[in-house]
Design a protein that fits this description.
Radius of gyration: 21 Å
Strand content: under 5%
Number of helices: 10
Mean pLDDT: 76
Largest sheet: none
Number of strands: 0
Distance between the termini: 61 Å
């Protein structure tokens, strides 16, 4: 068998494996989004809910988690749809768009996730530094991307601007998580001594984000200074994009017992005209997690 044929077969196999994994990630996010929509609809339609608006039924954590799943679902869908285009399109412009638009979509989801971690820290420390211009940030970022993409349509040399912008986005995410990460770990340190599952998951997600954002920024920077002749798909997508996505999905997953408990408490709490909350053990764990610890000032 000729080397060119073997190379083509290997490339096709890599594409198939990546496509299947991205498709399953999309399905997992879509199932979760559907479950959240059904849950909110049940609470809204319940005669015992006593609340006529969605904001009254959502805790900040639940609403952020639901929105994160939606953004991640869209990112996985965009990568699933555009992956064949990137591999087989004849135009360099369309290959570039097929590669970078899903990266922008994933960055949008990570921005929401990082902003939530930052909010946890500011809530715990009572600093009041953090604000939430989430929608505005997303709109500005996508607007800049669209303008650069239109500009690159006329000048292929402008491709570097899109890679540079994405590198700036992931470098910013890395800087934010690097600033808030150690503070979050310090805040959660007493909970680790009590073997808190919530604290452990938050810290694992924080450390994973630090490593993933740094690696992603370096990978994008290579396209600016010295574009690689050939990239390994398993490294570019499998390690830098799929791995952190799958791990965080696992960390954020709520088992069926927790979901049934939330549905049950949503109906019970609705009779009193209050929003549904977590069960008592989760409430205690969450409130303890968000308290400022005396040891933080010494860190």
């Amino acid at each position: 068998m000729e080397p060119s044929i073997m190379l083509s077969n290997t490339k096709d196999m890599e594409l198939l494996i990546l496509w299947i994994v991205y498709f399953f990630v999309f399905l997992a996010c879509a199932i979760q989004v559907r479950g959240d929509l059904i849950f909110h609809a049940e609470v809204q339609q319940s005669p015992d809910s006593g609340v006529n608006n969605r904001e009254g039924n959502d805790s900040n954590g639940d609403s952020t988690r639901s929105m994160f799943y939606r953004l991640l679902c869209f990112a996985a869908l965009s990568r699933t749809a555009l992956l064949p285009v990137e591999f087989f399109a004849g135009s360099a412009y369309w290959r570039m768009l097929a590669e970078t638009f899903p990266q922008m979509s994933f960055a949008s989801a990570w921005t929401l996730f990082v902003s939530f971690l930052a909010q946890l820290v500011d809530t715990a420390l009572g600093t009041g530094i953090y604000t939430q211009p989430r929608l505005m940030i997303q709109m500005i970022a996508y607007g800049i991307y669209v303008l650069l993409a239109v500009f690159a349509l006329h000048k292929n040399e402008a491709f570097v601007l899109i890679y540079g912008f994405l590198c700036l986005v992931y470098t910013t995410l890395f800087g934010i998580i690097l600033f808030y990460g150690p503070r979050l770990i310090a805040v959660l340190q007493p909970n680790l001594l009590r073997r808190s599952g919530l604290a452990f998951r938050l810290i694992v997600c924080c450390i994973l984000c630090i490593v993933a954002f740094a690696a992603k920024a370096v990978d994008l920077a290579r396209h600016i200074f010295k574009p690689p002749d050939q990239e390994k798909s398993w490294l570019k997508y499998g390690l830098l994009e799929l791995f952190p996505t799958v791990v965080i999905l696992i960390m954020m997953h709520q088992n069926s017992r927790v979901q049934r408990q939330k549905r049950s408490e949503a109906g019970m709490n609705g009779k009193e005209g209050i929003a549904p909350r977590l069960n008592s053990s989760k409430r205690k764990e969450t409130s303890t997690t968000l308290k400022t610890t005396p040891s933080y000032g010494a860190v």
